[in-house]
Structure formats: C-alpha cells, structure tokens
Design goal:
It is a single chain. This protein is an alpha/beta fold. Helix content is 24%, strand content 8%. The protein contains 15 helices and eleven strands. Helix 8 packs parallel to helix 11 and helix 9 packs across helix 13. The longest helix has 21 residues, at 299-319. It is globular and about 55 Å long.
C-alpha cells in the first residue's frame, strides 16, 4: 500500500490500521497539496477465500447492504476491514497468500498484539481440485541443540535395505478442505486446557516427593496433556474424568480453551501387543476378551464401535462445538499395525483388518462436520521410517479414507514413545522420499544424524521425529498429491536419550524424562503444528506380570517385563495396568527432565 500515509498525526494513520484495513483498489486521492484522502468507499463482503481459510465471517454480514457512499470526487474504490473479515481473530496464522479472488489484493495480517505484521508464514494454497503446491520443509539451523536421542518403539516390521521408488498411487481426484483444517489449532487457541483430574494425580505424587523432583512435579501442575478415551465409560459424566465433564469445565473458562482427546477404542485394538487390548471385540471369548484369531467381517464389532463409542462422543462434542478448541488424535498404532504387522495373525486376520479400516473411516467421516481438528496416528521413525513401511502406510491411509483424507489436518507421531525431536537434516535423496543425508556413514558428525538406536545403518533415515516427519510428509505427498499434511509430535516422555539397551522396548522405559513443554513454536513450523504431551506422563504403558497388589495381570505383555522396563530391576515397584497412575514412573520422569540452559 504505497499510498498509505504512515506516521501521520492522527491515530488512524498507524501501522495498526494498515493491518486492519484491506484495500481492493487505490482508494486514496491527493486533493491539491493535502495528504491523500479516502474517496468513494464502501464496505464489501469478505472474500470467499478468507472464509475458506478461516471459517470466520462478519457477524453483521446478513444485515449489511454493502452499498457505496457518495462523495464529490471520482476515482474511488472498495474497501473492507480485515478485522471484520476475521472476527474474532483480527489476524490469523495461515493467511492465504497470492489470493485468486477476483480483484482482491493480498493483505498481510497482524499478530495478536494488533499491530505487528506477520511476514514469514508458510504458503497455503487453497484449492478444491487437483494437486496443491505444498510448503517445503523448513531446514533447521544447525545451531539448534538436538534433543537427546532415545528412539521409541512399538515393534517395527523387518527393515528393508533396498532403495525403492516413491509409490505410484492414484491421487484423490478432489480435495475439499474443511475451513477448520486449514489453520494450526495450537496457534489458533493458545490456552491449553489443564485437566483437574490430572492435577489430582500429580498431587498424589507431589506429597511424597522431595527436592528438585518435587519442584518439577509442581511445575507440571499447569501443563496441558491429552485425555485418552480408551473406554466407553469415559465419554459421559459431570466430572473431569469424562469427556463431557472436561468440555463442560473448559467451556466455563473466561478464555477459549484447547482440549486434546485421544480416540482409542477400535474393535480388536492393539493387535500386536497385549497391554492395551480394548473392550470392543470382533469376536468375544467367554470372559469378554477378544478372540484375535477369529476371522470374519467384524460387522457386529464395527457396529458396536460406531453406535456405542463414536456416536456418543460425537453427541458430546456437538454440545461444545466451537465453544472449545478440540483436537482429536485418531486411533494410535492402528493403521501402522496394518501396514507393517500383517504377518501377526492377530493383525492380519480379516476381522481386525476390516475393523480398523471401517472404524477409522467412520470416525473421520463422523467428526468432519464439527469444528474439530483431526490428526491420524502416524507411528514414529523407529517403526515406519523405512521407505517400504512408509509407502505401505501412506497407501493404506489413502485407500482407507478416500475423499475424507482432506478432513484430516495431518498426523500425530511418537505417541506414547520416546523418539527424540532432534534436528531436521538437509534433504538429499535419489528417490524423492528417503533422505540419504545420514545413510552409508555420511555426515555422522552432524548433530542432525545423532542415532543411538542405529537406525541409519539399517537404511532408516527416521533417527529423530523431525527427520521422520520430513520423509513421511514426502511419502504422503507422493501417495496423495492433493493433500498437504501437518504434524504434532508427542514430547511427553522423550527428554532423555540412550536410556534403553534395546530400542524395541517400549513399555515403561526406565530412565526416561519429561520432554519439551506443549507449544506451537516448533523448529519446523512449515510442517510441525505443535509439540504436545499426548501420552499423559505418569500413566503406565502396561503392567508387570504381577500387579502392585500381588494379583496376576490379565493383560500382561512380555515387553513390560523387558530389561529396560520399570519393574524388572531389583527394588523397583510393580507396574499397574495401562493407564493406571504409576507413582514411581512419574517421579523418575520428573527427576530426569532436562532444563533449558541447565
């Protein structure tokens, strides 16, 4: 806006108004020797692409006539206020750049202070047909400290050392983006909800803690974490141990809150492990546990999942639609298991496969009509980082969701695991997907190649989550060119590196520490929406063979008895079942938490 009079003598001539006013044409005209003045202006409807990008519109739009006022001068134009078109945000992250709305000029929005302009946002191209131009991953400065490298685990499939080409999957013909999915929810709403029920659990450990561990636990009382809906009984209720109670409490706050929920109750859940087997089955045993060996269509289990789990959650979320910023993490470990563990008959049988695909497709389709942001679980670099695993996963995602792929914001990674955030390496590739920068012994002194689990020697470039996200992004773009995914990384327990003798040991790892605090200020904002505590720190991954009360654990998984798991060492307490509060573990996580600048 070269004709805009900056630094004038009146409050109107200020940078704040530059951010708040949008000009379609040159609407200032010099009159004699005086300063330029506005001539013949009118308010106009907010451009369609602004609405598509933000989901927001003028509250008075229906009652405004948009007729231009008359002046004695000619050469005028049209204008509207940016603040009107983006109420209540005034300016927003993810502004459409290079708008194609006829006659509309680009406006750079303000930050939340109302006058600082946003100049360094990634490009967002809005389209409803065909491929989009996606943001290229941000190369992180090599001066950034790497996070300690402690790779996560659920058991990956056997790594492939072959160099493979990008998948040749037919792209989705149409991508109709939900306006709500085009902005980062963790930046849109900065008040991350803290659950009083979690605070009570922390308090139960604080009373017996001492020293720095106690101080760290006390500071965690104000840190947000996700809430796992792993049983139906957690859906309805009036207290904050239920989804309904959490949203009711969040909606009562004076400022809009962001609540993160984990959708986690598929039929035949957790097919490649035992610690987190669910309550809905394709075929029930006499004791109401799941018969994972029974084949079939799982029609009864899918119907139970839809009508007694997803539909009730939808009903509760609907009550607080747009009153609370809601993020949904969709079914951790599910599609990664189908992508890599089909040799396990518990995962590979027709019933489990049908349940996972149909259940996830139903959930995404059901929730897409609400103002919620969905991230499908994408495992972690130690599981899917190999190119063949990536291609199997992304192909499966496209075939499972079809046109509903665009209802996702992207993927969650590292959920309930220990993979470090790390540093993103420069991208060097022969196939456009696998990053060869650290492979074949290259650049091993570069901090971005730190690799305590020796994945790079197995031709896996996913040695940390930023490097993994870089290749998952590219594999997803190859499978579905019209879809641009964004990511959220679980940093609840990845603050310590090299604490396991075997990185396949995922259950209650000894020596782990709290990771980075939840934030939208990530090292790769063009790809990563947030770091967040998705696995609730202090909640057990699974039980030891004997429970703390001495009884036999009905869901014991041998990985929870590994040499790296708390409870296997001399003098260590037994671990409770998955989701149970583990006092010994939370104190260890707090004691090992790294602090910035020491």
């Amino acid at each position: 806006f070269p004709n805009y009079p900056h630094g004038g003598s009146t409050p109107a001539d200020s940078m704040q108004d530059l951010c708040k006013w949008s000009f379609q044409k040159n609407i200032r005209k010099s009159v004699g020797n005086s300063n330029p003045t506005i001539v013949n202006m009118c308010e106009v409807k907010c451009p369609a692409e602004l609405y598509q990008a933000t989901g927001l519109h003028r509250s008075d739009e229906a009652s405004t006539s948009y007729t231009c006022g008359l002046t004695g001068n000619s050469g005028g134009g049209l204008m509207t206020r940016m603040m009107d078109c983006t109420k209540p945000s005034y300016g927003w992250n993810g502004n459409v750049k290079g708008s194609t709305f006829p006659g509309y000029e680009l406006v750079v929005p303000c930050r939340r202070d109302g006058y600082t302009r946003i100049n360094a946002m990634p490009v967002v191209t809005v389209t409803t047909r065909g491929p989009t131009t996606s943001p290229q991953p941000t190369m992180l400065p090599t001066t950034l400290p790497s996070r300690p490298s402690n790779l996560p685990t659920r058991l990956p499939s056997k790594p492939s050392t072959a160099t493979t080409k990008a998948p040749s999957v037919s792209p989705t013909a149409f991508v109709s983006y939900s306006p709500w999915q085009l902005a980062n929810p963790f930046a849109r709403t900065l008040n991350y909800y803290v659950n009083p029920s979690y605070q009570q659990e922390l308090q139960s450990s604080i009373v017996t803690a001492t020293g720095q561990t106690k101080l760290t636990l006390q500071s965690m009382m104000q840190v947000s974490s996700a809430y796992w809906i792993d049983v139906k009984s957690k859906i309805n209720g009036l207290d904050t141990s239920s989804v309904q109670g959490i949203l009711m409490d969040a909606a009562s706050k004076p400022q809009k809150q962001l609540v993160t929920l984990i959708i986690y109750d598929l039929p035949n859940r957790d097919c490649h492990a035992k610690a987190s087997n669910g309550e809905i089955c394709c075929t029930y045993n006499s004791d109401r546990t799941c018969n994972y060996d029974a084949a079939g269509t799982c029609s009864a289990g899918i119907l139970e999942y839809e009508t007694t789990y997803i539909d009730p959650i939808y009903a509760v979320l609907s009550q607080y639609d747009n009153l609370v910023e809601i993020v949904l993490i969709i079914e951790p470990d599910s599609l990664p298991n189908l992508a890599t563990n089909m040799a396990d008959p518990h995962c590979g049988n027709t019933a489990t496969t049908a349940a996972y695909k149909a259940g996830i497709a139903y959930a995404v389709n059901k929730f897409k009509g609400l103002h919620v942001t969905m991230y499908l679980d994408g495992a972690h670099g130690g599981w899917l980082g190999w190119t063949d695993n990536l291609q199997q996963f992304t192909t499966l995602v496209v075939s499972t969701l079809g046109s509903n792929l665009a209802s996702l914001r992207g993927f969650s990674t590292n959920v309930a695991n220990y993979q470090p955030v790390g540093i993103m390496c420069p991208f060097q590739s022969n196939d456009g997907v696998r990053n060869d920068y650290c492979l074949n012994g290259q650049h091993q002194t570069d901090p971005c190649c730190a690799d305590p689990c020796k994945l790079e020697s197995q031709y896996n470039p996913g040695n940390n989550e930023l490097n993994y996200i870089n290749v998952l992004y590219r594999s997803m773009r190859a499978a579905a060119p019209a879809f641009t995914p964004y990511f959220v990384i679980d940093t609840g327990r990845n603050g310590v590196g090299n604490m396991r003798s075997n990185c396949a040991n995922w259950c209650n790892a000894r020596g782990a520490g709290i990771g980075m605090l939840p934030t939208a200020a990530t090292a790769a904002p063009a790809l990563v929406d947030a770091y967040f505590w998705l696995k609730t720190p202090g909640e057990s991954d699974g039980c030891t063979q004997l429970l703390p009360d001495g009884s036999t654990c009905p869901r014991y998984d041998s990985f929870c008895g590994s040499v790296d798991s708390i409870g296997s060492g001399a003098g260590e307490p037994r671990a409770p079942q998955a989701g149970g509060w583990f006092d010994y573990q939370i104190k260890q996580l707090a004691a090992n938490a790294p602090f910035l600048n020491g």
